[in-house]
Amino acid sequence: MKIRLLLFAGLMVLALGSQAVGADDKVTARLRALFAQFDANRDGVLSPDEQIIILEVVNLSFGERWGEQVAQLFKAAASADGSISEAGWKQQVEALAKQVVSSKRTFRVAMRDGVKLATDVYLPPGEGPFPVILARTPYGRSGRGISGVELVQEGIAVVVQDMRGRFDSEGENLPFIGCGWGEHQDGVDTVAWLRQQPWCNGTIGTVGGSAGGITQNLLAGATTNGVVAQYIAVAAASLYHDAAYTGGAFRKADVENWTTSNKFDPKALLLMRERPGYDDYWRQFDSTLKFATMTAPAVHVGGWFDMFAQGTIDEFVGRHYHGGPGARGRQQLVMGPWEHGVGKPKAGELTFPNSRIPKNYDVTRWFEFFLLGRDNGVLKQPAVAYYVMGDTATPGAPGNEWRFVNDWPVPAADTPYYFQRGGKLSPAKPTTTTANTVTYTFDPANPCPTIGGGNLTIPRGPRNQNPIESRPDVVMFTSEPLSEPVEVTGRVKAKVFVSSSAVDTDLSVRLCDVYPDGKSYLMAEGMLRLRHRKSFEKPELLTPGKIEEVTVDCWSTSIIFNKGHRIRVTVTSSNYPRFDVNPGTGKPWTDTGERVRQTNKIHCDVARPSCVLLPIPKP
Which tens digits make up the pLDDT trace of 167-189? Predict the structure, then answer.
């Protein structure tokens, strides 16, 4: 049981900056603070009833694993009548913290070029050797690291390392510069160093999410020799396609905010902005090119509203079906109704019931099997656990449940819902034989704003799109109220016949679930910069007035549109500040550069049947 707590909490803290737990010195403060927060009558004692309230809050906010940990502390601190004095609570918290401090050692590990990386090691008591969990982070090993308390007691060494150029590590302060297979291979070198240590038995696992998951993907692309298993949450597979650019459009808000708020060298942002096309610079950060060389089993955890959602799925599919020996057929995928985090029931403006990660797929069981050799059946369970979202306002509505399958994607038919005259969306093909278009004009000086979606640093998740749906530069196609529920599970794409007055423009496509009260919740979305309609490597400008057939990738989802709801697709040419604005000139946006208004036509007739392709599962 002890391994469960720390692995689960440590993953979330390291990857996502969760406020549940911090570094070693913060564990004590935050656990101690529970007493003051819930001592309702301020009598210096936690009654059994107050303890129950704490456990309910902890379970709801941070999951059952933390609830188990706090319950263990309650049991150790309780007096004969079941109450806990403030002194007794502090004593247990301090004892827990001392276990970490006494086991911690810090090394300066030299990489192949001589640069030294600050690395904390938490060793269990005894002579060893021990299995090892490795976490590499750009956020500071003392800020969001794994504290090591329970793993040390379990007989597992915990290693947390500052990435190159970050905090106490030497080197250039650029994101992921040493994580892959390029000139610097810090992940590879660190694993090699671990295998040489007398306290390491050669059984090494890696853990982390977001940036801590990206570095795991890059390590797997370089080599996973010596790594027996990975647990990767909410991580990009390709930094170009999943993180910096989507459909060729720059992910302005998140890239700018993330690089600046984390105090990376300003050069980092310049490097990303100067390379709007997919080139050799981006290939060094694209783990999808390396599936055949990957050998480690891994769990890939993502959320339908996560900024890296499709990257999580692509990484699973690539490794599971095309990985090297040890990886192929030994991957697992978990997709929940989450934003950039795991397990929280609320996403955006909707709350999904029973949305915690299924216990059989949590980080603890994975490493119990691979690091401790416990035959818990983890490789015998279905390879994929995915949450089917549904109507959150109607009790008993279909969906809002976990499903378990062995393959992804699930068998589904890409069913066209056509854009029709009068703003209708219908599975019936258009009957209009004469040219039929919906026209709008996009002004770069007045971009359509972002409202939710797969964001990191700005409001995210499924949010009501009504505020933008009355804009003149937003066109809508809406179905009739559904007579029966419609399930969509898989990758959503929009096939659009479009012409523009400009040499370049964007198509922002949003798929929404329209509730009976009229609120229109964003469930999936896509973006395409049309100069990249044929290639992300070689841009090709539009010929003004020429009709082009383009495909906008709206990534993947799983949702049941309930009876009485309507399905809506909106199309416009911006989603700002999630993406930068297309000036319409064929050149990147600059604050002082030229920009032109873009009059765009969506064609919706028999010869040019624009539509959204919805993957509807086969019976």
Answer: 999 999 999 999 999 999 999 99
Q: What is the pLDDT of residues 73-84, one digit of tens each?
A: 788 888 888 898
C-alpha–C-alpha distance, residues 327 and 220, integer Å: 10
User: Of all residues in the chain, what percent are helix, strand and coil, respectively (each to 5)?
Assistant: 30, 30, 45
Beta strands of 138-212 (E only): which ranges?
157-162, 200-209
Mean pLDDT (the chain) is 90
The C-alpha atoms of residue 161 and residue 140 are separated, in whole angstroms, by 8
As to burial, measured by CB atoms within 10 angstroms (0-12 exposed, 13-18 middle, 19+ buried), residue 216 is buried
At 195, the pLDDT band (50, 70, 90 cuts) reads very high
Instruction: Give the amino acid at 400.
Output: N
99: part of which helix (H) or strand (E)?
helix 86-103
Distance CA 313, CA 422 (A): 36
Q: Domains of the chain, with CATH numbers?
A: 2-98 (1.10.238), 412-617 (2.60.120.260)
Residues 6+ apart with CB under 8 A from 167: 118, 140, 141, 142, 143
The three-state (H, E, C) secondary structure of 514-581, written as one string: ECCCCCEEEEEEEEEEHHHCCCCCCCCCCCCCCCEEEEEEEEEEEEEECCCCEEEEEEECCCECCCCC
Asked if 234 and 306 touch (Cβ cutoff 8 Å), the reply is yes
* CA–CA distance, 235 with 251 (Å, rounded to integer): 16
pLDDT digits (tens, 9 = 90+) for 19-28: 223 344 555 6
Q: Pick from 299, 294, 1, 3: which is nearest to 130 by CA?
A: 3
Q: How confident is the model at residue 61 (pLDDT cuts 50, 70, 90)?
A: low
3-state secondary structure string across 304-336: CCCCCHHHHHHHHHHHHHHCCCCCCCCEEEEEE
Q: Which helix (H) or strand (E) holds 77?
A: helix 64-77
Phi and psi (nearest 5°) for 303? -125, 145
Predicted model pTM: 0.88
DSSP structural state of residue 105? E
Judge whether 190 and 146 are in contact, CB under 8 Å.
no
Please check the confidence at residue 60 and state whether its pLDDT lies above 50.
yes
pLDDT tens-digit map of 408-449: 999 999 999 999 989 999 999 998 888 899 999 999 999 999
Q: Which helix (H) or strand (E) holds 256?
A: helix 252-261
Residue (of 158, 130, 141) closest to 5 by Cα position: 158
CA–CA dist 284, 524 (Å, integer)? 29
Name the residue type at position 12.
Answer: M
Q: Answer for the pair 426, 611: CB distance below 8 angstroms, yes or no.
A: no
